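Comment thread on ticket #2218

A.B. wrote:
> Attaching the input chain for the structure job we discussed in standup.
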Amino acid sequence: MLLYVTLGLLVHFVFFASIFDIYFTSPLVHGMTPQFTPLPPPAKRLMLFVADGLRADKLYELDEDGNSRAPFVRNIIMNEGSWGISHTRVPTESRPGHVAMIAGFYEDVSAVAKGWKENPVEFDSLLNETRYTWSWGSPDILAMFAKGDLRSHIFTESYDASSEDFGAHDVTKLDTWVFDHVKEFFHAARNNQSLFSKVNEDKIVFFLHLLGIDTNGHAHRPSSREYSDNIKLVDKELKEIESTVKDFYGNDGKTAFIFTADHGMTDWGSHGAGHPLETCTPFIAWGAGIRLPQKVSAQKFDDSYLQEWKLENWKRQDINQADVAPLMAALIGVPFPLNSVGIIPVDMLNTSDLFKAESMFTNAVQILEQFKVKMTQKKEATLSFLFTPFKSLSDTEQANILRKARYYIKQKKYDEAVSLCRQLIHLALRGLAYYHTYDRFFLAFNVVLGFVGWTSYASLLIIKSHCNLMRGVSTEAKNPSRLLPCAFVAVGVSVTFFLLIQACPWTYYVYCLLPLPIWYAVLREIPVIQGFVTLLSTFPPRRFLGYLLLFILGVEVLVLSFFYRYMLTAGLVALAAWPFITALWTRAKSISLSWIFFCLLLAVFPLMPVVGRKPDIFLVVGAGLLVLLLSLFVVTSVIKRKDSFINEELVLHLLQMLSVVFSMCVVYGTHHSLLKKQGLPLLNQIVSWTILASSFVMPLLSPPVLFDRLFSILVSSMSTYLLLSTGYEALFPLVLSCLMFVWIHMEQETLQHSVVSCKQKVSTIQFACNTDAAQCRDLCLDDIRRAFFLVFFLVTAFFGTGNIASVNSFDPSSVYCFLTVFSPFKMGALIMWKILIPFVLVMCAFEAVQVTTQLSSKSLFLMVINISDIMALHFFFLIKDHGSWLDIGTSQCEFTQQGSPLPLRAGLAVPRQDHSDPPGDRVCTLGLFFCTGYHNILKYFEMRIFILNNRKIKYLLNYTQLSALSLWFSPFKPCRKATGDNLTLIYLERAFHSHLLVLILPPASAFRKGVYILCSLKTLGGIHRYRPVSSPFEVYLPQGRSSEVRLGQPSRRFRVRGQRPNCASVAQESENKQVSYTATVILAQNFRIHYKPPFWKWVGYSKHERINASEDSEAPNETEGQGSYVLGLSPQRPSTNLVKESEDRVRSSAV
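C.D. wrote:
> Ran it. Output below, let me know if you need it in another format.
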């Protein structure tokens, strides 16, 4: 199982990571020669203003009174300069945006994860080429372009990162700080001769990064008064800075000004994807070398922006964001950035036609240099007979175009030269894209081949190990041939040699070699495939096609829901009809009505508006009140129940209710505090983090009874979810959980009327007991439906809360109860947990369904993986790297969400060796973690402590000390073999609801016999039995004799009886033999015994070293004491009455 899980994780990780090698790789190449315009530049200096997060429409449009928010900028547009829209690309984050403007190239989409880091790769930028650069603004942005040796000519001045507080009273101070320091700089330069001489040099840049608008947009939304006021402030300060600079330089006319933004922002205050509100930013240029405004009667743009902005008569010149870098380089006469792919907008230049032509020629040569380097690299890494060059731009074609362009310039045919150079640039860019994606088909084919092979192997594993379809059909090859492994080895060697001689990156070896072992595993199961095909031939064709079409329809609905959220509504309406097409409607009408009601109620949420909504704190508080109302019903039922541990349960419920009350108060108080611009109160912040931490612990302290534990998980999760909610999404987990409760009941009803017997009612099922006791059964068609339901509910859990398949769909204001100071990784982690909470609720319910249906979680998990993999394969082919940037960003996000490694999506944690199932047959899920608590976690990870050269227990540690000690001894490493008489194995388990420590010490001789007496003691359920780790047999505890383990000395005999057909030989042997082992059970630390297990007799109970008790001796009903005790139990054959007696005591009894 471990090998299978490892291979599965590897395949999914490779599949997930492959898109960044296939679709989104870095375009950078190195080794080019710098190129610059060989004519005097029009400007000596340039001032670059970047208003972070400024949308074009908010700057250009008129307010409700018909006045401009930026009168100075509007005056520039109408009287002094050129204007337009700068079109950005995804990811619309600060780092990629600034790199595109200043370095001239677009980073790959994977750079969204590096959006706030310094340069992950080395690249050339405009600032590198300047004589001096001075910059002011955010420390995150300025540090990107001033590293190492560059600090000698790039000077930065920034405020403290803690100033970027979304909850601050006035975040416009971030921009005011920049403008004030710029003014002080020029004032100081008048009195500092060294500085004065530097600022009077040519080829210098002043870079002002203005973060206030972005911060106000995140905190208050772009439609807020604060956002508009910040624009007005920037406009006012721009006018003052321009006046200051002109006065300093004596109006020499050698200063160029550019005002733009790195990205826009959605209506709900986020960015990162490709929505037009994020990709459309303003661009205004004026000053030296910039063309004056041009009045026109008609323009080529077919959007309605010009009419809305009342600027239809002033020529609009749109550019790509990367075009800003060559424009700035041409204006001040520095070399174009080496990696720039921008095209200089010559129509914006107010220079001679010769300068325009020379600048465009330089631009073409600079991009052609990149093409040549890229072609050379690919040619050298490919076998000559396999290399296919870009035919549209051969070496001869390059020389002809350059010679012709130079001829046009000499003949003063500047327009023809500019046009020809622009044609060459487009060809070179196409060639760069061609070589950039040269290996795309090759890589995609291998990745898809491996992924399809994995899905096939998982399907075969389900058919072979978890279905009864193959019984009676031989699945073993009669004469295994060595030809198959030899053939795969030969193919592997050939592929490796082929990649080696081409000097391919190491990732290519992974993509090309991974399919080989996967398909080898598939082809080894040829008998299974043949048997399955034979069985299918006997299946009614119409019925088979009907099931197949229904499955395809369900998967396609899930895929379409990523594009159209209302498809989930259609799916939920269809699920509501489930009881009518089965017998559930007649057998369980009340539960069926509940199912229909909650399905239809949940179907409303996908129809609600997406995240572009206004906060509604009253809905959040209302959701908290509903949780408290439900909690009161539960508390009432607990009080009515006669239970020995009623006080502990009541305390836990009251604490959880108190957490919900605190969450409501914090949400309400924080909202009003931020509205008053008083910031986030410290007390609210402390309470929020405390509630978050406690929400992980409280569910684990609740009783492992199915509904008690699930409700505890719901209340604890809701206390955190309320803190992260801003509107109607706070109601979603509550409705989803109600549907999950009904789903568990529905599955129980389905099971009770099927061929699979169900012995217990839902109200009596316990996670701790049934997870171990459930007997694995074969899969049936209903189990495919259950797996599909899980995937459907997981998708609904994401889209139902108002999210869309885009990284900008998350409202940053949802984390304001925890922090308001900009911290992308903390904020991202909190938002991720908000997304995961509905997933946790679904996974917990699915674990309950697995327990009630008595089905191996491994088989269900394999089906869930297969369904998710089929969906991920859809999105792999739907990924786009062309077309609109909205489409590109959305396709990438959709694949990331569905194709990410399954541990996040379906809850896989680690394979678990359960003592009631064959080794590795169960899987720990996210739901299982919360549903079982520490009681079972210790069993899942098989905590062991090895004590050498010690045959006695000298110290009885408390639970905390022993847990810490066990962690120190690496509890996650299982022990399969142990030899020698000096090795004693201690197994730790904490019994629930009693301060009890159980230690089981088998002798070393037990290991030599090949059977481990290392199993879980069931503290709930009334059945005390053991299952060894290495076999599926029940091992009953022998009679204890002493607190001292006497190694190698057998005690009384006890029985081992087989249960599994795959161990028939051992079972047959055990029928005729009795096996002897020694074991001692020690109870310590104020324990209490409440009842005698019905399947056992007390054979000894003493506080002394040795006991003298007869077979009929009885233990007291309740005993409390200190120190070491020895308890011996002797098994007896259970009768029907004893089984019933045990089941009746499950809810009220515990050891």
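A.B. wrote:
> Thanks. Noting for the ticket: The chain is about 50% helix and 10% strand.
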